[in-house]
Amino acid sequence: MEVIVLNKKEFPLTDVLSVTTRTCLQPEQISGLLNLLRFMTDLEEIPSSGFDLVFYRCRVDLVRQFPEIKGLKDSSDDPSWLKEQIDRLGSARNVTRLPIHDRAELVAKIEEIDEPKKISLSILAFCK
């Protein structure tokens, strides 16, 4: 049973770093990344037309919440990179939802975008 305390929820560091480094660090567990984005935005589904907007807004906020990860870049040529980050930073982070006014603004922007479809190809392209 997962516990959400106020507007915080624990997520694996790999999901947080997937957003902040813009690199899908565990493609086989993409649902964790989507759960993180849904939690932060309070959206049940993320339309593919709004995925980039949601992703960008969450990335900015995660770096604000966790300044120690600012500037970290995935080193895909070094398989030990992720383990080093987990050893240094811990395996999880308590993530806070986006502020309510930011969530409302995000929803309004998504509603302005044409072709609202459930997330599909956008996330698949991200995890190549």
Describe the structure.
The chain has 128 residues and is mostly helical. The protein has one domain (8-126). The protein has helices spanning 13-20, 30-41, 51-65, 81-89, 100-112, 121-126, and strands at 8-12, 92-96. The chain has a two-stranded antiparallel sheet with strand order 1-2. The longest helix is centred in the middle third of the chain and has 15 residues, at 51-65. The protein is globular, with a radius of gyration of 14 Å.
Highlighted features:
mainly alpha; globular; two-stranded antiparallel sheet; 128 residues; 6 helices
Rg, Å, rounded: 14 Å
Individual helix count = 6
Q: What profile does the largest beta sheet have?
A: 2 strands, antiparallel
Strand elements, count: 2
Q: What's the rounded overall pLDDT mean?
A: 84
Shape assignment: globular
Low-confidence stretches: none
In angstroms, what separates the terminal alpha carbons? 32 Å
The SSE string, one letter per element, is EHHHHEHH
Ordered list of secondary-structure elements with their pairings:
Elements: E1 8-12, H1 13-20, H2 30-41, H3 51-65, H4 81-89, E2 92-96, H5 100-112, H6 121-126
Antiparallel strand pairs: 1-2
Helix pairs in contact: 1-2
